[in-house]
Amino acid sequence: MLRPRVFSIRTVTESALLCLVLIVSSRSAIAQTNDGDYILSLASGFLCDPGDTTTCPATAKDASSNTFEMSGAGTFSPHDKSVTAAGTFARKSPSGMVLDTGVWLATSLVSFDSYGLAPGALKAGNPVRRAMQAGPMMRTRMLVGPTAAGGLAVFRIRLFPITGAPQNALLQVNCALGNVPPERQVEGIRITVEKNGTDFSEEVSGRVMFLSMRPEVSTPAKTPQQGPVPASAETPE
Among 2, 53, 201, 221, fewest CB within 10 Å belongs to which? Predict the structure, then answer.
C-alpha cells in the first residue's frame, strides 16, 4: 500500500512545482511588458473578493452541467500573437466532485478582438487629463497605461493534470468592458478540451480583465506667439 501513496505525493509535488515555475514566469513577463501589449488577469489577484465564488475562480459549464474552473495571469501581444500566461484549473461533476485538477500553460494567441478602453478610463480626474486642461502645451503623445480594457482573447493552452496525460484545449476569455457586442455581454471564460471535444460553452461566474499598456492621449497644440521684431530684422527703407 505504500507505493501508490508515494507516487501520489510525488505527483502532487511535481505538479505544485510546475505551477510555481509557470506563475513566476508569468509574473516576470508582466514586469517586462512592452507598449501595445496586454496584461491578462484571469480570476486572480485584485479581482478576487475573499469568500465570493462569483468573482474567483472563473467557471464555465458544459451541456451535462459539469464545470471547468480556472485562475491565472500573464501577458499577450496581438501584434505578433505571442503569449506568456499560466494558472490552475479544476474540472468538477454537477455534484461538485473534483474530476480533474492541475495547471495550465498558454501556448499561443489565436486571436484578439478589442472592445476598447473601459468607460471612464480617461475621466477628468485622471492626472494626465488634468495636465491636459492646465493650459496650452506643445502637442505630445502621452501614455496612461496600464488601463482597463475590454475584448475577446482566444488562446491555445496545454492542460497538465495531476493524474493522466497532458491535454490541449482552446480557451476563450471575454472581458465585457468598452464597446461590447450584444452576443458577448457576459464576462467570463469558455473552453473546449480537444481530446474528447468537451465544450464548456456557458459562462457561469468569475471576473476577468485586460490591462492595455498603450492608451494614448494627445495634448493640445500650443499656438505660436508673435514677439517684438528685433531691430536687426526690420526692413530698411
Answer: 2
Question: How many domains would you assign to the chain?
Answer: 1
In a domain, 208, yes or no: yes
Residue type, 43: A
Q: Give the predicted TM-score (pTM) of the model.
A: 0.72
**Sign of the alpha-carbon torsion through 90, 32, 82, 206:** positive
b/e 5-43 (16+ beta carbons within 10 angstroms → b) = eeeeeeeeeebeeebeebbeebeebbeebeeebbbbbbb
Give per-residue pLDDT as tens, 118-133. Answer: 887 655 444 333 333 4
Q: CA-CA distance, 141 to 217, in Å (whole number)?
A: 6
Locate cell 486642461: which residue? 133
Domain containing 90: what range?
33-218
Radius of gyration in angstroms for the set of CA atoms belonging to the chain, rounded to a whole number: 24
Q: What is the pLDDT of residues 24-38, one digit of tens each?
A: 444 444 445 565 799
Residue labelled with grid coordinates 468573482:
55
Q: What is the DSSP string of 111-166?
A: EEEEEEEPTTTT-TTSHHHHHHHSS-----EEE--SEEEEEEEEEEEEEEESSS--
Cα dihedral 58, 61, 67, 68, rounded to 10, equals -50
* Position 72 in a domain: yes
Residue 231 placed within a domain: no
Nearest CA-CA partner of 56 in 88, 16, 8, 17: 88
